[in-house]
Amino acid sequence: MKPVIKNKTATFQPQGFLDANNAPFIVETQEVELFKKRKDIEGVFVSLKKVIFFNKNGIDEILKRLLEITKDRKELIIGFTDYDKRKFETLLKIFKDNVNCNLFENQKIASLFTGEAREENKNRKIIVYNENTEQKNIIAVELIERGYSTVIAKNREDFEKRKDNFDIAIHRSYLGLYNQKVVAKIKDNAIIYILRNFIDSEFQNIFDINYHFNLLRVGFKLFIFDISHISSMNIHGANFFAKLVTAGAEYNATFVIAGANEKKITKSLKENLELVGMLFYDSIEKVFEDKNLIESISKSSPSVKRNSAKITKEIVKHLPTFIESAVNTIEVMSGIKAVKKSVNLKPLNIEGDDYFAATIGFYGYFEAIIILIFSKELIKKSCSILLEEEDEIDDLTLLDTLGEFVNIIAGKVKASLAKENINVNITLPRTYQNIKALLESQKNRKGIQIDFQFDKDPFYFYISNSY
Length: 467
Hints:
Elements: E1 4-6, E2 9-12, E3 16-18, H1 29-37, E4 43-47, E5 51-54, H2 56-70, E6 77-81, H3 85-95, E7 102-104, H4 107-111, H5 119-122, E8 125-128, H6 133-145, E9 149-152, H7 156-162, E10 168-170, E11 174-175, E12 185-187, E13 190-199, H8 203-206, H9 209-218, E14 222-233, H10 235-248, E15 254-258, H11 267-276, E16 279-281, H12 284-289, H13 291-298, H14 313-317, H15 319-334, E17 338-346, E18 356-364, E19 368-374, H16 376-382, H17 395-418, E20 424-426, E21 430-432, H18 436-441, E22 447-454, E23 457-464
Helix pairs in contact: 1-2, 6-17, 10-11, 15-16, 15-17, 16-17
């Protein structure tokens, strides 16, 4: 099929049904080879406007062809466009947690993300909303970096109320370049695993143990397993939990099972888990209502490793990617240029303690932890677009917003590395209101520390191995 080429974008426009039988004829081999060579084309999309029906086989076949082009054209923007609510929801179900392309509601929105930001769009006002908070923030930050006047809607109601006052309203779009598979939820620096079905010997095969241990290394202390949706647990499942608790002791971590009853876990299995240190609560809400537990965890001593591994050559090699993603994002969001003050290989060392910080882990191709330390004022300036009314901002709101902001930075690192065919996974961000414990946990570890100044506000970037 011949695509329509306009404004440096090629759009294939299939009609009718899109399945395994006709998908190979949409983006044909000769078109794949053509767009590998055509440097003037900045985006290749498949429009679903005239498609009546599509299924997973059809979408997978087309995406395979589009991804083939990006092997030689890593800067190329690919994906699907021109769909309604029903088609968008179907696409997300097909991709599940692995959206490895871009989804744009229409070609006007797609044009905002391809090539150089177009002058005719720069004066247009844009409002962004997405049910996925991470996507909402990433889309908005990407548009701001491209020079567009962008506002984030607080919620769905706010978006519907205000969208007619904007030139472009973005609701059902998805930047797959920044996708990460989320295997846990976070609330107040606690990791919550939502478990389903039957917990037996097979559970360890579906539980991402590598991700879990990287969460421990990042500094999370409270892990909650919500078993209210499981049918039952046998001794093999209980033994796996016991191993998690035992291994977590090295990190001073606390493990909780919420939503248990005797139908889900027998009295003897519960008693055995309590002996190794597992705590039990009726619900997740009851965990957070236990102020003594929450306070004791927040004051728990940090885990300190005796031996500090040398920082690897791979981390040093890709250090510019980490720094550029962090510093450039802060510059764009705050409107302030960064001044580099010093670079040192040493344990983390900060003067004073009136700062907020966040840690996030990277693992896969290499393992690393980055620590970003901000003053309160710099967080407010950098995260203003993510905040609501500034005069109502308290420390907890700042911490939550900092977590979202650091997640955006990590997503940009992941996307940049992916363009070099380097695949890494990222953990959820762990935030700190008091950095004393954070500094203590790093005292025996050597990493690269770079001190910056944003006007009068200091910013510290630190990276080290995660083991």
